[in-house]
Specification:
heterodimer; A: 208 residues; mainly alpha; B: 57 residues; alpha+beta; disordered C terminus
Chain lengths: 208, 57
């Protein structure tokens, strides 16, 4: 195979493109800009850490099933870990969102970083909602019967039936976790490609 | 969890704040308040080791 043919392969072109955009030293840098030394920059990674616990405890709950998480002490404990890691996930994500909003984190060609974060937030809300209606208890019955009227008013009830436990559970444990993980991965990679947004005064100095 | 029940009554109806069109449970309002306090604290509290690290761009 000639060099020209090798250069035209999609694998070669993709590798060169990825290596150009995200070399290893940019993917896992040794140092960070000085302005990152602030507590407000901690909440992005805190959200990520909470997401890892959410996924891990969700996997354990999937293995053992509803009877286990409703009836056994360890099941209650893992169920609580799942719930409280979700609480921390949203708590940290909202503070991360506020921080990035007031920093104008979409500046400097970071529109896609901002937008993937927003879409991840909405996907996470849907994941939280489908989790609430998948608990198989009185809470989930109450929430789903209340929510059906809202969803039906939008016309979405024909394809997204909140009273269908099987459908809600599948969305909660397959589709939405896949979406949340994929979006988070793209979001983090974009942060590494574009770097952390500098403060406004730092940004204006760079422009000058 | 009995110790928690002795501090917070968990077997009663939740408390709600109703002001014009706004209806929110006290629990949710407390969480929003904690987020605001944490946000302000994150901006004001000094970060450990600040100034001692090498900056890079």
């Amino acid at each position: 195979m000639s060099t020209t043919e090798i250069d035209r392969q999609w694998t070669t072109r993709l590798r060169k493109r990825v290596a150009g955009k995200l070399p290893p030293e940019k993917l896992l840098p040794d140092t960070q800009p000085a302005y990152v030394s602030s507590w407000i920059y901690v909440f992005g990674v805190a959200t990520l850490a909470a997401l890892i616990i959410v996924i891990a405890t969700g996997c354990v709950l999937s293995i053992r099933g509803p009877l286990w998480w409703h009836q056994s002490s360890i099941g209650h404990f893992v169920n609580s870990l799942h719930l409280w890691s979700v609480e921390i996930f949203f708590f940290a994500m909202v503070i991360h969102l506020w921080g990035k909003f007031f920093m104008g984190a979409w500046r400097g060609g970071r529109t896609m970083t901002w937008m993937t974060g927003c879409v991840t937030f909405f996907a996470s809300i849907l994941a939280g909602f489908t989790g609430y209606v998948s608990q198989t208890n009185f809470d989930s019955q109450w929430i789903s019967t209340q929510a059906k009227d809202g969803i039906n008013a939008t016309g979405g009830g024909s394809i997204f039936n909140v009273l269908n436990l099987g459908q809600m559970l599948m969305w909660h444990i397959v589709l939405l976790p896949l979406a949340a993980i994929a979006l988070t991965a793209v979001h983090v990679l974009l942060v590494r490609v574009k770097g952390v947004v500098p403060p406004y005064e730092e940004d204006s100095e760079i422009v000058q | 969890m009995s110790w928690l029940g002795s501090i917070i009554p968990l077997d009663h109806l939740g408390h709600y704040i109703h002001w014009h069109v706004i209806l929110i449970s006290v629990g949710n309002l407390v969480v929003i308040g904690l987020m605001v306090v944490t946000f302000i604290a994150a901006l004001l509290l000094p970060f450990p080791g600040r100034g001692g690290r090498k900056a890079s761009k």
